[in-house]
Amino acid sequence: MWRVRLAVSSVAAVIGAGLLSSVQTTVPSAWPWVGSGALLATAVAAVLLLPPWWFRLHRWEVTGTAVYVRAGYLRREWGITATSHVQTVDIRRGPLEQRLGLATVLVTTASAKGELKLHGLDATTAAELAERLLILAHATPGDAT
């Protein structure tokens, strides 16, 4: 999913930069093409190298007592919530996620921080995880606040 999103935005950036530089130049020059080529090379490198790095940084785990989510590229964040604080569990599937058979699980808590997001899960895994979280939240004593 990350690779597809990055590829689409990179293609749009290269095309936009190429069109903008060709419109801005009144004298024919090779420099707009050089700039677009450099941008294209950078985009290809980003599409190939960034998603595996991002995959290594993003993690999640559900235990009998808590939900853990780690995310972030430069600034890493841990989100931890007790299952007794889980209020709702939602599954979100955007158009790209639907096409790729993926889903995002949103775990809403009583925290002011908001919700925990588990991105890029297989749709079946997401449904099973949502069911498991609801069972754990219901079985855990507490008032969900």
TrEMBL record:
Show where the YdbS-like PH domain sits.
Answer: 56-132
| Key words of the record | Membrane, Transmembrane, Transmembrane helix
Chain ranges passing through the membrane: 31-50
- Pfam families for this protein: bPH_2
Q: Give the matching InterPro entries.
A: YdbS-like_PH
In terms of PANTHER family, this protein maps to: TRANSMEMBRANE PROTEIN-RELATED, UPF0699 TRANSMEMBRANE PROTEIN YDBS
The name of this protein is: YdbS-like PH domain-containing protein
What is the protein's species of origin? Streptomyces atratus
